C-alpha cells in the first residue's frame, strides 16, 4: 500500500515515479523491470468513495507512458488516453474523483503502441475503492483482505531478461504479486482474496487444488448482488474477481502441493 504525501482538503495526494529497476525474480538471475515507484507490481492505492485521489506521475523511463485507471469513471483528461502520453522526463497529475461505488480497480500503462510491452515489463497495480456500503458488510478486512495479482512471463534463462514478443505462447512462468513460487500462510478463518489478472494476453482459470468451492463475492464492478458459489473463476486480461475462502475447513497444517 502506498501512503499519501498529503491528506489535506479532503483529497489524498500521492506521488509516483515510473522507473527502470533490476530485481531478482528467478533465483540467480537479475531482471530489468519497468515499475511504478520501483515496485513490482506497482504499489496499491486505497481509496474511499467521495475522497478524490490525486497522483503526480513522473516518467523517468526512456519510453512514453500514460496511466489508465481501469474501471474508473474519470474526466477524459485524467483517463490516461493512449495518445495523451507522458514523455520521458515529463510528469503529469491525474485526478480521480472516486464518486462511483466500491470496486477492486487496477491501473496500468496505456501509451500508444507501447502499452502491451510496458504492462508486460511491470507497469500494473491495484486501486481499491471502498465505500460505506462495503465497509458495513461482515467481510474479511485488514490482514484478511489480500490482493493477488497474477500474470505470466517468459524469462531468458541465460540473462534473466523478460522476453517480450507479441502473441507469445511460451510465457510459462506465472508470477503472483511478482513472485514465481508464491507461498502464503493463512489462519484457520475466512479470507477475501482479490484476484486480479495483469496478464496481457493469457486467460486464467482459477480453482482450488482440492476442487473445493469458491465463493465469489465481487467482479470488476464491485460486489455481486449475492455471493456466487462456484468451482472455478475465469479471468481475462485486466479482469478482477474477489473470492471468499474459509480456510477453517482444512485441518491445521495442511499445505498445497
Ligand atoms: Cu485497462
From TrEMBL:
<feature type="domain" description="Plastocyanin-like">
    <location>
        <begin position="20"/>
        <end position="132"/>
    </location>
</feature>
<protein>
    <recommendedName>
        <fullName>Plastocyanin-like domain-containing protein</fullName>
    </recommendedName>
</protein>
<comment type="similarity">
    <text>Belongs to the multicopper oxidase family.</text>
</comment>
<dbReference type="InterPro" id="IPR008972">
    <property type="entry name" value="Cupredoxin"/>
</dbReference>
<dbReference type="InterPro" id="IPR011707">
    <property type="entry name" value="Cu-oxidase-like_N"/>
</dbReference>
<dbReference type="Pfam" id="PF07732">
    <property type="entry name" value="Cu-oxidase_3"/>
</dbReference>
<dbReference type="InterPro" id="IPR045087">
    <property type="entry name" value="Cu-oxidase_fam"/>
</dbReference>
